[in-house]
Design brief:
230 residues, alpha+beta, five-stranded mixed β-sheet, 10 helices, 5 strands, globular
Length: 230
Amino acid sequence: MRANKRKGASASSNITSVLIAGLPFMFIAGLFVGFQLWGKPNVQADQEANVTQRYEIPISNDDPYLGSLDAPVTIVEFSDYECPYCQRYHSETFAQIINTYGDQIRYVFKDLPLTSIHPDAVPAANAAHCADEQNVFWTYHELLFSGQLGLSDDAYLAYADSLGLDMAAFSTCLAENRYVDVVMEDTAVLTAINAPLSTPTFFINGQYVAGAQAFSTFAQIIDAELEAAN
């Protein structure tokens, strides 16, 4: 029993000697770790700064919107009628935002057709603007995202007919591609401000949000903006 104790005491003495001998190395290592932690840029702070960056998004009087013009929160959506993620957002989240916030927000829609992979996106957007001439943009907009009849000239005419539109006027607008330039001007907005071209893209009082996010993601930002406004 005593032998075991002496053995333990001897081992403790050896460990102490090793620790003392290693102190210079540990000191240098500590300095290195400290430099790594405090001498480098604060990446997290940079990321947080990017999250709160605000873009200036020009809004035309002709841009379709819901809610109140003088609402404290403006949401601008850039979207593509042929984009599956945009369709998912509209089926899962869009109505919840509108129903929850009503006139507390101004919800503006702009087009962002990804023409390289979505050949029907521009014609669909043109059709939506043609419907807007007869004051049914949002109803027509939802039909396009519903996917009930797909995206084609026949579908655009069928959607218009189902809403009781003046078919002669609508057909002429469609055939003329009357709003193609307007559609492409929306895309140019994002290019001009160097914002990423992804669909769907949102700006909540200028704050960038990408993708078909859950309602909670939008609500967190909207609620913060409403609180700041009050």
